[in-house]
Amino acid sequence: MLEQRYRWKNKHLREHVSVLDGKRSPTILLKNARYLNQTFRKWMTANIWIYNDRIVYVGDMLPEKTNNCEVVDCTGLLLVPGYIEPHAHPFQLYNPHSFARYASQTGTTTLMNDNMVLALQLDKKKAFSFLKEMRDIPTTMYWWCRFDGQTEIQNEEQTFSHSNIKSWLEHDAVLQGGELTGWPKLLDGDDMMLHWIQETKRMRKQIEGHFPGASEKTLAKMMLFGADCDHEAMTGKEVYNRLMQGYTVSLRHSSIRPDLPVLLDEIKQLGIDQYDKFIFTTDGSSASFYEQGMIDHMIKMAIDKGVPIIDAYNMGTINVARYYNIEYLHGNIATGRIANINFLTDESNPTPVSVLAKGKWVKKNDELIDIYEGLDWNELGFEPLSLDWDLTMDDLQFSMPFGIKMENAVITKPYSVSIDVAYDQLDESHDESFFVLIDKDGKWKVNTLLKGFANKLSGLASSFSNTGDIILIGKNKKDIITAFNRMKEIGGGIVVSEGGEIVQEIGLPLKGVMSNDHVEDLIEKEKSLLHYLREKGYRFEDPIYSLLFFSSTHLPYIRITQQGIYDVMNKSVLFPTIMR
């Protein structure tokens, strides 16, 4: 599928060997490097030769030729492999390119990425062109292959057709199938999903689970079907159960599930002191969550909780590489590996002062070296959202007998509507708001009420959602329309209107679901929106995830989807969408 099936062509491998033969100079020589050697499980000192993007030697020797070589004396520094994020959702307002750039600054230089937005927003040819473009950035980008849309979508059999799934699974950049958000269908007899799992395993690729609250028996069944790892353990006991059934366990610390401190404490209480089957993930957190760091932050938390230092680093490096069968390329500093190296000042502080990604400096002496070249997003298929229809007051008519109540940031239940909704504005004495999911092509809509999101929010329009359809929330119909019109004008985004004025705006010009801002800039806009929503009554952890998961049927209990209002537990549409 990729134009270059092998990472290095034969001529490149000959060049690598010629460096050792003294016929060619390394591009970087790291002298006197005290580095983490995971074979011996200790810190050792060596000279590390790098040629372009590859480590070509680690040991006592020095190269014969250094005429085209940058020589770096590493005395006083500690070197560890670049960190690996095994479960990235690189579309949480940021985009894969901006996220990779930002993550590299704290040492995470390899990402295993969700392909959901690519599968839903682009045709296969465009999606694979994008993967090819991502191959050339300093961060190493791998991908998943989703088997379902994580919601009830129209024409799912076309988007997730056997032909599409097969092509994704065969792609060289795809390392796993899943995550298995549709696993209840698998248990109910979905043999096509089981076939895709079988194909994934035949290709020696991994299957990522998604099993929140799963019983021991369910975990065992899913292991028999082919699951390899799960990131949904929320207690030490759930970690234990997954280990007992043979899983690799991805310990999570994210914006809606900041669980790592509790997990590490409870693991220790259960007497678990072997860490080879553990890896770390931040599970696609919102941009502002990453101000504190990424995998480096999780390694630091593990060290502070008493995890042996080498085990803590291994959980963010070689454990991941071994799990994905890519240890020959990633996860350790050794001959033949891709030159992803983090430079530390202290073994107990995993945040690097300098970072090499594919043998290029992306950070040096605490300074950003920005070599992540901009992309032509339109050419790649990520043009601004274009809506050729208008939202009117006729679209904002509400008569449904029950609404949707938020239990927390992502769990929603039904409730009986008792207020009179025959007005253009709802009272601020309660926390019920008008709530609409409307087709981005303007063909259908679902109108209900939303309880618990806010009590003073006048009008919000968002093209950021699970499927890229439009979410409308607010007390005032005119402000909802004002927010929608501004969102339409800027080609997609999250927009809030109050008193006829735009008071908050995050532009998402990439298909209406992603920003083209640097993550640093996006963080400030996201924090401003969160502060505003909190003032208007939002009381949960993460409004960005609330918007994303309103349609997500991998969570209980009631969801608003392209098919209508959907009962997750009974797998049925309670109220279908209405054609406009």
Strand and helix map with partners:
Elements: H1 10-20, E1 28-37, E2 42-51, E3 54-59, E4 70-73, E5 78-81, E6 83-88, H2 96-104, E7 108-113, H3 116-121, H4 124-134, E8 140-145, H5 156-159, H6 162-170, E9 174-178, H7 183-187, H8 191-202, E10 206-208, H9 216-225, E11 229-230, H10 236-244, E12 248-252, H11 260-269, E13 278-281, H12 295-304, H13 309-315, H14 318-323, E14 341-344, E15 354-357, E16 360-364, E17 367-368, E18 402-406, E19 412-416, E20 432-438, E21 444-451, E22 459-462, E23 470-474, H15 477-489, E24 493-498, E25 501-507, H16 519-535, H17 543-549, E26 558-561, E27 564-567, E28 572-576, E29 578-579
Parallel strand pairs: 1-4, 1-5, 6-7, 7-8, 8-9, 9-10, 11-12, 12-13, 18-21
Antiparallel strand pairs: 1-2, 2-3, 5-14, 14-15, 15-16, 16-17, 18-19, 20-21, 20-23, 21-29, 22-23, 22-24, 24-25, 26-27, 27-28
Helix pairs in contact: 6-8, 10-11, 12-13
- Unreliable residue stretches: none
- Distance separating the two termini: 41 Å
What general outline do the C-alpha atoms trace?
A: globular
Largest sheet data: 9 strands, mixed
Q: Please give the number of β-strands.
A: 29
Helicity range of the residues? 25-40%
Give me the Rg, rounded: 25 Å
What share of residues are in beta strands? 25-35%
Q: Note the total helix count.
A: 17
Query: What is the structural class?
Result: alpha/beta
Mean pLDDT: 96
Domain Amidohydrolase-related: 79-362
EC number: 3.5.4.2
Catalytic activity: adenine + H2O + H(+) = hypoxanthine + NH4(+)
Family: Belongs to the metallo-dependent hydrolases superfamily. Adenine deaminase family.
